[in-house]
Design a protein that fits this description.
globular, 429 residues, FAD-dependent oxidoreductase, 33% helix, 20 strands, five-stranded parallel beta sheet, single chain, seven-stranded mixed beta sheet
Amino acid sequence: MSRRIAVVGSGIAGLASAWWLSQRHEVTLFERCDRLGGHTHTHDIELNGRAYAVDTGFIVFNALHYPLLTALFDELGVESQPTTMSFSVHDEASGLEYNATSLDTLFCQRRNLASPAFWRMLLDLRRFYREAPALLHGDDEGPTLGDYLARGGYGRLFVEHHLVPMACALWSSPVASVLDFPARYLVQFMANHQMLQVQGRAPWRVVRGGSSRYIDALRARWRVRVRTGDPVHAVHRGDDGVDVDSASGRHRFDDVVLACHSDQALALLPDADARERAVLGTIRYQANDVVLHTDERLLPRHRKAWAAWNAHVPAAPGAACTVSYWMNLLQGLQAPRPLVVTLNRSEAIRPDRVLRRMEYAHPVYDHAMVRAQARRHEIQGRRRTWFAGAYWGWGFHEDGIRSARELVDAYEAARLHEANPAVLDGVAA
């Protein structure tokens, strides 16, 4: 039997939930912004009379590690093209720079050939690849990343000028948060994405014409009522349905999918119970200032050090690492100037080179969050309320769409159980 379902939030988790649920049910999608997509955000930029579609949120994927997203793109006919995931580091205090793509770029500063500390960093890197997988076999929560590195005696250059900047770039997190990251959880991610090996990594791709093209393809084919610019203020749950209070008024549904961030979902539930508060309230978020610009000074000084991802280690002790994405390389844009997306270093960008400013929030990973993730089953589907979001995984696009797939499967199983409980309970009719 078809049901009326509200989906709140239009990031990948909300879009995928709406797409799959709408194939059997009547779905209304609420989005507070005037666009769909959340962290899927493509900007139309004009330089010298030519247009460029530049992404500032979701950028890369690959078939091996993003199977659900890749399958959706194939189903929708979304075109993609190869890209690179090269990585560089610039240390403001010492001037150290390297790009890990090749020997030539790794030693773009020839002085590093005679640097014992630099060679030790490379040896520590290989040792980390070799030793870190042992963390996957423990029975307890294991150490934080900071504790693990300290116990292992890893050198300062490897910690401060490679692993931490890389993790900061991956999760858009400050240094302190990265060092509090559960070491096992980080290694699980790296192992899953073939990042603990030098050779044989899966090739990465980008959506041709900008990531938002997949949203256009979804909207052209789905049967979803879309309410953009209609923020939801509260969700009231009863025995026979839910009321969604939004800027446009009160709307009645059978069920609701909260596909916004977990803290936003909790704020929408005035009658949240103890379990919902414990699970959703444990997950913290980091706000990140994001700027799309053309100021090449935010990239490394050596042209050979320019990479797809460029980490910047500031001179001030304790200051946050930042990252600048060189979108010309990532998206294959033949633009006359560098198109750069920089996180949390806005004050260094020349104002006349700024094209767009955004703010995105990302989950903060610690042991408490991992424990909260393991309790999803305690709140999922109770009181006509379902939760989807990348925060149930590592925080990436595939995690968001996976949460939607798992939600939809559980939702349909619950409906089947309602219609015929004897079958699913293993009881003979």
